[in-house]
Amino acid sequence: MESSAVVWIAVAVVAVIIIAALAFAARSRRNKHRHVEAERIREDVTTHTAKVEKREALAEETAARARAAEAEAEAKAAEAARLKERAEGHRGAVAESREDIEERRRHADRIDPKTRVRDDAGPDAGPGAVTHDDNRRDTAAQDAAAQEAARRDTQRR
User: Fold this and answer.
1) Structurally, how many domains does the chain consist of?
2) Which residue among 5, 11, 60, 101 is the one 20 to 30 A from 45 at the CA level?
3) Is residue 142 part of a domain?
4) What confidence tens digit (pLDDT) does each residue in 92-124 have?
5) pTM, rounded to two decimals
6) What confidence tens digit (pLDDT) does each residue in 71-99 have?
7) Helix/strand/coil (H, E, C) string of the chain?
8) Within a domain: residue 139?
9) Is 12 inside a domain boundary?
10) With the C-alpha atoms ordered 148, 152, 154, 155, is the resulting torsion angle positive or negative?
């Protein structure tokens, strides 16, 4: 029995060695599979990182264009405001000039002996007679038109 005990011990040792070898092989194969999977994940991460960086660059470029457009819009708004003020100044000058022209026309009518002013001529004045009332109505209509244009311009702001 001694020899059979030695045989059984040898069989047990061989079985333990085979089991250990199988366990080691299984562990090595599992580690190799995990290494391959980790490499695949790293490649995916690298690809995804590049895509994210491109998208970030695009976002920064778009934001820069938006800031430039805002600055341009602000500049155009400032230019529009300046032009509106300038137009108001021109309208004021036009109104003053029209008043001056009308005053000069009335003065010319008063001093011209050939022009009959209806206020002075009375009811028998002819159809060519100039009246101060007609001139005042024309000036009032022009002033009203200028004020209406200024009001519309102010509403557009």
Assistant:
1) 1
2) 60
3) yes
4) 999 999 999 999 999 988 888 887 655 544 455
5) 0.44
6) 999 999 999 999 999 999 999 999 999 99
7) CHHHHHHHHHHHHHHHHHHHHHHHHHHHHHHHHHHHHHHHHHHHHHHHHHHHHHHHHHHHHHHHHHHHHHHHHHHHHHHHHHHHHHHHHHHHHHHHHHHHHHHHHHHHHHHCCCCCEHHHHCCCCCCCCECHHHHHHHHHHHHHHHHHHHHHHHHHC
8) yes
9) no
10) positive
